Hints:
By secondary structure, the protein is an alpha/beta fold. It is built from 12 helices and 12 strands.
Amino acid sequence: MPLPPRIDVHSHFLPPFYRTALSANGHSNPDGMPAIPSWSKDAHIEMMSTANVTKSILSISSPGVHITSNASLTRSLTRECNAYAAKLKTDDPERFGFWAALPLPDVDASLEEIDRAVEERCEGFGLMTNYAGIYLGDERFGRVFARLNELQATVFLHPTKPCTHIAHPAGDSGGEGDGKGEEKVDATPLGNQYPVPIFEFLFDTARAVVNLFCTGTIEACPNVTFIIPHAGGALPPLLTRFIQFSSVVPGGRKLDAAKVRAQLDSQFYFDLAGFVFDGDQGGQGQLKALVEGFDIGHERLMYGSDFPFTQTQFVEMFAERMKSGLECLFDEEQRAMVYEGNAKKLLERGRKRKDASL
């Protein structure tokens, strides 16, 4: 039987100038992967046909656009990427949309880019879990999230290499950094043994989401909708523990379990990119733990391919595995919502908000 039609909210693009920028700035093996994956519009459409994807929402994957301490390069690369994605959408609006990149940690430039991307009718914004060790939820990004909240924006979260941000006395750069007495230090103790996406991506997703809750960013931004990739990464089995731990640690922000539960049900979606099912056990695997262990319903789930970092042959394999796995967890109507319906509703709501703001 053919694969069910689906909307892909986790799909990437790597235009030629972006690939060149990665290679020129030390990212020929991004996040420890063997190479920068090839990508073209035609190859993307071929993948869509293979997996019966009716629409792809494109984004820049890790390492993102902040690939050097050169702020000017980050700004120009961000603008080029967003303009490229906007043209893809303009030329083929039925097939393509995009989550716009932002030149964080440059807040002023990001605020300018938000307005330009809205004018280009982006579907929302694709943010990395951290930028040079400054994690989403940090007060330095407060103005950006305030603007996203004003716009009632959708934020697609994507993991990147975990690192720490260290400030030094003025004039002491302490090493490679931004020239302002600061540096970033990679926090990947097993990075020489394993590519970062194998497990560090999953941990950094959890780290960023927990920080968004613990800093009060989620509560301060009730109009922002978040899409969390890879079925939540390492977050679902641990979130209850984080919530309870916050209540016994002095000086921290105490989280209310009922409020967090309500925020998850109203502001969060989870995409199903990657190994969310055990291939030999039907519905067993990570997604079952998310659905049954943390009571996430079908209405909060969306499809993601992770193309081209997941090659077409594996996109198809995962899609077949997902077809079998979802049949073990949900009825036909619920599965249709996971594949297409939830994304359609979210994208339509975003379109109406943009129309009202322009």
